[in-house]
Amino acid sequence: MSAFLKGTGVALATPFNSDGSIDFAGVGSLVEFCIDGGVEYLVVLGTTAESVTLTKEEKKSLVAHIVKINNKRLPLMIGIGGNNTAAILQEMKDTDLSDFDAVLSVVPMYNRPSQEGIYQHYKTINDQASLPILLYNVPSRTGTNMTAETTLRLAQLDKIVGIKEATGDFTQVLKILKDRPKDFLVISGDDALALPAVAAGGDGVISVVGQGFPKEFSEMIRLGLSGETKKAFEILYKMLPILDYAFEEGNPAGIKNILKVKGICEDYLRLPLISVSKNLAYKIEEFVNNN
Length: 291
What we know:
Oligomer: single chain
Strand content: 5-15%
Mean pLDDT: 97
Distance between the termini: 37 Å
CATH superfamily: Aldolase class I
Largest sheet: 8 strands, parallel, barrel
Low-confidence stretches: none
């Protein structure tokens, strides 16, 4: 059911014009670049898309445009999450999910539920969802870590097919891998830890930097999945500097600057996010032009 989630997915950024409107030509260029680069699937309206500053109408038009450009070439996942369980259920009902293969839903942020609260939140979504659900654990953004124990408990539910694990805590990743059900997917949400996670038995990555370097990233993960870890780590070590630069001043500021240097789109962001500093832009440009 969710085998398409193995390999490299990319969390698409949303290109903007100088006036803050969505740059639909840039969106098309980015989607084509990722498809040509060999990624396995696309993630729409994730954190990297600056989805929290998009209106409902903008989300609808952005989704429609990506669906049209993709034209069923790659599987699509959509981010629908938040900290109001009832509102998430309503958004799932109100969104046309016919072109999507799965939903990515983040651990509730700001109101910081207990582990039991997190479990009940996802169980409620599971019971009403029409598509497979991928959990998303990113405590640096949500303020709450979903423990390995809670993840493994949720893994028993029928619609929950895996987790995007972005704690940066490799021990937690190993605990989930050790005791997960046979078909439960463990997908890295940390670009630098994606290959080590795959080498430990993980299933791939939902990457930010992968949309800037789709050929390199997808090849690295494919090599890792096929057991050719020496070749895979050679790619990772070459990519390490840009993995640091991409997140040095926050995401998606870093990846948008990478995409600008590559000529895919401009690097405009919506407040409160701002473009990278001149110093970081210089380092990114040097890396891109020399690799």
